[in-house]
Structure formats: C-alpha cells, structure tokens
Amino acid sequence: MSKQEKIVTGLGKAELHRILVRGYDLTEDLVGKITFSQMTFLMLVGRMPTAGQTRMIDALLTILVEHGMVSSIVAARLTYHTAPEAIQAAVAAAILGAGSVHLGSSEWSARMLQEALPPGTDGVDLDAIAADVVKRYEERQQRIPGIGHRTHADGDPRTDRLFQIARETDVYGRYCDLLQRIARAAAARRGRRLPVNVTGAIAAVASDLGLPWPLSKAFAIIGRTLGAMAHIGEEIRNPMAANIDAAIKSALVYEANEKEKT
Amino acid sequence: MSKQEKIVTGLGKAELHRILVRGYDLTEDLVGKITFSQMTFLMLVGRMPTAGQTRMIDALLTILVEHGMVSSIVAARLTYHTAPEAIQAAVAAAILGAGSVHLGSSEWSARMLQEALPPGTDGVDLDAIAADVVKRYEERQQRIPGIGHRTHADGDPRTDRLFQIARETDVYGRYCDLLQRIARAAAARRGRRLPVNVTGAIAAVASDLGLPWPLSKAFAIIGRTLGAMAHIGEEIRNPMAANIDAAIKSALVYEANEKEKT
Amino acid sequence: MSKQEKIVTGLGKAELHRILVRGYDLTEDLVGKITFSQMTFLMLVGRMPTAGQTRMIDALLTILVEHGMVSSIVAARLTYHTAPEAIQAAVAAAILGAGSVHLGSSEWSARMLQEALPPGTDGVDLDAIAADVVKRYEERQQRIPGIGHRTHADGDPRTDRLFQIARETDVYGRYCDLLQRIARAAAARRGRRLPVNVTGAIAAVASDLGLPWPLSKAFAIIGRTLGAMAHIGEEIRNPMAANIDAAIKSALVYEANEKEKT
Amino acid sequence: MSKQEKIVTGLGKAELHRILVRGYDLTEDLVGKITFSQMTFLMLVGRMPTAGQTRMIDALLTILVEHGMVSSIVAARLTYHTAPEAIQAAVAAAILGAGSVHLGSSEWSARMLQEALPPGTDGVDLDAIAADVVKRYEERQQRIPGIGHRTHADGDPRTDRLFQIARETDVYGRYCDLLQRIARAAAARRGRRLPVNVTGAIAAVASDLGLPWPLSKAFAIIGRTLGAMAHIGEEIRNPMAANIDAAIKSALVYEANEKEKT
Question: Cβ atoms within 10 A of the Cβ of B158, count?
Fold first, then answer.
C-alpha cells in the first residue's frame, strides 16, 4: 500500500493505555475537567474555547433539543414502537430528518453567508455585500434563507436571545452583522418586516465561531439526538406507543378507488 | 377521536410565542443560563441536576466522543463520501452501530444491574445479590457484561476516573457498589483479575443517576454524534475520502471461484 | 499487513471491464436474463433457484410491500417532509423500524425453529420437538413467536396463501411442518385456536429455503423499501406533507404541568 | 379535526380480512401471481406493467445489487459488526450512502432530462434541447450528469446492455434518445468521447418508464438493500468482522501532533 493510500486523522487515537483527543490525554486532561460544550468546540474547531465561546456553544446546543411532538420526534417514537430493542435506530430516524426544511435548514443560511463573505476575506463593505445578496435572490425569485418567519413577524424571541448572548460573549462578529444587514436590506426593498429567524441566527453565530457551513447544523443534530433519547425515555417509563399508533391511524385515511391515481 | 387515542408528552410544547421544556420557558429560563449537560439531565431525568450531577454528566458525555478511526466513524466517513450533501445521514450511519458489541454495550450491563436490584428496592444484601449474579452467569456460561478487559487486566484507567468522579460528586451509589462487588466475586470465583471496564462503569453510574437501563447508552450516542460530526468536519476541511476508499479497497480482497461457497 | 488481516468476499468483484456476481458475469449472464427474485435467491442462498423457488421468493417479496399507513411508512413520510432532498434517508427511516414488534418479527420465529431443529439434523421426531418447544415457552410464560393472531383467530388468509404456494412449489419442508405441529400442540394444550400467523409462515418458508434465521427478515426489509419509495413517490406527485403534519399534531397533545412527571 | 387535516393514501389499505394494494386484493390477486418487479411497477407507476416493462424493471433492479466491497457495503458490515442484533440498522447504513456521488447519482441525470424536457411536452426538437443542455453546463463549467466515464472511454458495457433491453422491450423513448443526443453533442463540442454511463442509462430508462426524477434511484436503493443483506448473510455464515476491523485499522493512521490542524 503506497503512502497516498493511507488515511490519517488528527482528531483522536487509541493507544494501549491512553486515548489522545486533539493531543490531549482523554482521561487525564478532559474527562471530569471540561464540559461537553468545551469538548464540542475542541472537536469541531480544534482548540479549547474561551469562557464566552463555551457559553455560546451551550446556548446553541440547548435551543433545539425540545420543541414538542415535531416530525423528527414522531419518527423516533414510531421506530421505537416497532423496534424497541434497538433504540439507536429510533434516534437515527429522528436525525435523518435534519434536512433543508426543518432542523437542518441553518446549513443553507450559513452557506449563503460564507459564500457571500468567504472566511479570511479582508477589507469588505458589508452593506454592499448585503445589497448584492438581496438582489441575487430577488433575481432568482428565491426566499433568502434565515430571514422571515410565519408567526414572528416582529422578531423571533429566540433570535434576540442568541444575538444577545453572542454580544455578551464577544462571539458576535461580521457574519451576525452581515445577516442583520441582509435582513434590513431585504425589508427595505420589499416594504415589510423580515427579521432574522432562529435558523439564520444559528447559522450566523456558527459562522462567527469559525465553523464551515455544513457543520452549522451540528448543534441541531446533537441537540435533537438528546431530545429523541428523552422521548424514548418517556415511552419506556410510560408507554404510549399503542396510543401513538391509534392516534396516527385515526388521522390517516385511505381513499377508495384510487387505482387510477398515481 | 376518543380521549384514549390522543397521545401526550410531558417533555415539551411549542406555543405561539414561547416553547416550554419540562415546564421551563426555553428562551427565558434555559438558553444562555444552563449548560448542555444540565439540559441532558433535565430531559432524561426530569429535574435540574446538582452541581455534582452536572459534572458527572459532562464526564459521561465526553468519555466516548473520540477514540480514533473506529467502526462507527469509518461508516460515517464512507457515507459522507458518497452522499456529502446530506451529512445527517452520515451521522446516523455512525450511531446505528451503537449495539451490543461496541458503543451500546453499557445497556446490557445496566440491565443486569437493574434487574438484579430493581429501582426502589430496599434493605438489600449487595454481596448476596452479587454472588447470585455471578452464579447465574456461570450456569449459563455467559460473560458478565461490564467486567473484564482484553488489554487492561489491571484495571481500565477510564473506569477508575469515572468512579473517582462519581465519589467526588456523590453520584456513587448502590449500583456502582454492586458492580464492584460483582467484579470481586467473579474474580474470586475464577481466580483471575476481572476489573470493571468502562462500559460497566458507565452503566453503573447511569443507573445511580436514576436512568432506566436502555437510556444508559444515551451518553455514547450523544457523544459519538459529536465525534462523527467532527470527523465529517475534518473531511470537509481536508478531504480524504478518495484515500479512505483506496485504503479500504486495498485491504479487502475478492476470492475467486467462490460460487460454491455460500 | 498479514494475510489474516485481509478480508474477502465471495459475493462480487468489480474488474476493469466486467463485474462478477457469485461467479456470473453481471452484464452477460444476469441483467436482462434473470428476475430480481432469482437474483435474490442467488445472492442470499448462493445458487440459481428452481422455477418453484423463484415463485416462492416472489411471494415472500410482495406480501409485505404495502399495508397502508403503518408506522414505518409514516416515519418515512415525515422524514421526507423535512429532508426532501435526500430520499434515501426517508427510506432508511422506514426500514429502521423492522424490529421485534413489526416488520422484523419473523426473525424471532425463524430463530425458534432453527434452534429447535438445527439445519442438517437428521432422523428427528417433529412431534416431540414441537411438544418440547410448547413446554419450554409455557415454563418461561412467553408467547410462541409466529402463532396466534388478534383478529384472525380462524387462520390468517396470508398464511394459508403462503403455505399453499410452498406446497405447489415444493418449498414446503420440515420447518413449515414443524411450525404447524407447534401450532397444533399449543392449541391442544391451551384449549383455543392458535393458528400460524403470517410472520410465522414467512419464518418457516425462509427456513425451508435454507436461510439462516436472521435473514428471514430480508423479504420484509426489501419489500418495505419498495413500499416506502412508493409512498415518497405519492408525496412527490401529490404533496400531503403539510396535511400529515397537521394530522399528526392534532392527535398529539402536550399535557400541562408535567414538570413533576418523568 | 377538519377534513383538510386528514391525509389519505391511494396506495394501500389494511381492512379486517384483506389488504388492498392499488385496488387489488393482496392475497387473492397479487401474492403468488405476480413477480416482485411487477409489484415494483405497480407501486411506483400505478398500473400493471407490460411483459416488456417487467423485463426492463428486472434489469434495473439487478444491475446495482452487487459490485464487491464498495463503500455502502463496508458501512453495512461495520455496523453489523457492532450491532449484530439489529441487522435492519446495518442495511440502513448501506442505503444512507445513496447520494450524489455514488448509488444515488442517477437522480441528477434524471432531473436534468426531465427539466430539459418536462413530461407531457409535445412537438419538441430533441437536438435543439440537447444543444441547449450542453451549452448551459458549459457556461456553468459543470460536468453533465450521466455521460463520461473514467475507465470506459469507449462506452460502458452496462449502458449498452440497458439500452439494448430498452429497445427490445419498447421502453426506449425520448428520454433515452435525448440523453444519447446530449452525449453526442457534448462529444462533438469537446472533441473527445463522452459516452452515456450506467448512471445516465438508468436515469433515461426510468424517465421513459414514467417515473418522476427523484424516484430514478429507487432501483439502486432496492437493489443495494438486497446486496447489503447478502453481505450480512456472508458475515453470519463466515464471520469476518474482526478481520474487517483489523484490515481497516491497518489502513487508517493517526498523525501525531495534529493539534494545530483543524
């Protein structure tokens, strides 16, 4: 096997008597000494976070854990119901839904931000970039990802909270700034309120933390993994699976003589 | 629809202007104020943890994040390689391996502990229970889950660390105690060292935290979700997918004329 | 790398200008010449099937494709709803539910049959084995997997159909025979009808086809993969996702003041 | 619940004593009477196929079942290795890789074809459409999906086979025609051979069969589901899991002092 065919990872290594994670001894340096949010930053960004960055990560990890009986959770509960002996499969069913419509949608907003303002770019005019973004989406007649909200026309309280924490922790940077300028430019252009939504806020904060855009949905996926596990825990303690099944069946109806339809 | 066909959850609820999680207002009370490990305890156990319980949860969540290029991570990287546009699927591929052999094996140890000593049981003789467990597994000629280790015959440093933290945080309780008694009884019976391994330690600590046995693998699944995400991040920044493929292909060989074999 | 570290497969091999599958040239010998059910037998059993075995495989593959809006399908539709750009993830969500309760339950029945009558055993008294199986399950107070049915106390028409085809195709062998003897012995013992159900019939037929017990659920998984794909196709042509969501939400209710409950 | 909140499916319905699939009685009309490939057409297209369409479907379903130790199969084997008690999870891990790079790539080619020539369009000039497609991809400097091949510059034998069967079965229609014109136009423009590859052939044939473009990867997903199941069967009969692990580990190397890199 030639050298080129080897693959390497700089993340971790299991030796005989110790495990190294990004150069740290797992048992000696990390377990019992750092929080999971510090571990998250260490793994995803590559160095230990500041206290502020840690608080920001905790906010991002907690904000999407639990929103009630949403699609991903119903998928997990149904999977648990028919395969209770393999709860990892039920949790996987939950996170498989982290796509473009829900749960994973911050990816699209982060991509827009990082393509408009590539990491490392210097001396930029954020208002010009914002105007250009708004113009391009208008030409393509596409929704700008990360702004606007069906129910929170006056601003999503979760966005305000994340941006507030971002300012308090010095994480707020040019991606948060750019997204807010985009929102203002779009609102001016269209003559209606188009506030940054929670998806956009997560995307902007993740970008300011230094994450490449596909990783901006890490927080949703990790958080909802916990959420799904908790819903399975609720099923274990207080089985409602039979009810779920009945509830869903009563809502789903077969339409007779559908043979012609495809 | 009759009342019985409705299903309910006590975990969370999305209202028009706020989200409730176990009765707390998500934006007001939780985000920016608690850590992800506190959220984990709140979701899985149902109340806010003490400072000690929080530190214990952080230890459990961090200990299985990263062990190098293990099976679950290779599965995630391969899946990312062929479907890079849907990283949630690659992460799901990683956690699907959290079964009885690796990553999910604490479940079997926790089950043994909680079936031997059901939650809520009082006035018990732990040594008698331990002896009985050892005897039953001997009769069935089965390995006792959670004790013994191929490479760490003198004790797994990760076990020692978790039990040390459990004592420091007052989490150490009768399940940790029972498992150590089982390990000693088995060693005496078989005449060789059979220390508690890290799987067993996680199972015992999770049981002392009040989790039903299937949830003892929550920490492995959440932790490895982060680990898989970080490996995908490494692929994004420094693509090795082609090398992975070549490396694996060079290790896998088709044996000609296998038609007869099944 | 030592020889022992190499792994081999006898199933297939991609060469520069041709692909071999179990020794056959894929393009020359198989594509356009055999059916998918013949391919299924070739892959799972290792040789080409007889005409009868082919018909039996087709029956097993078609019988579980579509049963309406069952759990696995709702999980697929919900996953499609939030991640429409990755339909493989929605299909995966469907088959993740193929566990012990639904869709994968033939595994438990096939295991019982093959453990009671190991493949290759000769000169056996099937009635004695059946009596022994019934006695053991009675002692452990467990349900015998593959017999009994909530709604079809007089016999499941799908079972009758599968056994009829098994007889017509000469697939019916000692595993089908054994399961029917078990059903009769259990009924005699308990004084009520306990007919073989469709899960049991699939398990017995798969065992008579020579499949190891864990593969008995291959037919359910392949069939439901098609079923899930068809439901996603229906969503694509006639989107009902929003309705699904509303229908499910209207059936799922949060119970206030649940903070105390865990 | 209002009428709008109900959802309906025209695919199937479980009644007390029978199951309806697209209006047919599953046990009476389908099981034992039709092949799985007929069922596939019935489910995905909505009516019974002709004999020719059935043969075409069998060709599409068999062509991607088995290509040796490819990424999706290694992911399945690794998952089986750590969670052998839940083989549905291992199969799911295999199909999760059916994305844009491998296994699911026909989707992109089918999308191009159906967007260039929407189903139902009449009186079109295929050469003009082909020229336009080639020009657009050239302007965007993108590869045209479904044509060109690293190793088969003179034409992929699998493509020739699929198009031959498509002609023999009268499935060959304007999508197959259009893709071949695109390939010729692109070759003329770039001055090198750019034959239709197997991904493109599947996309064109699926489009001529009447499938919406996202369903063109149904055949890959169903076929590889069988492939993964067969590889798991090989592991069950002849466990190589430990070898896989060793083989892969020997190919994957941790690079020390990687702490600085991210």
Answer: 22
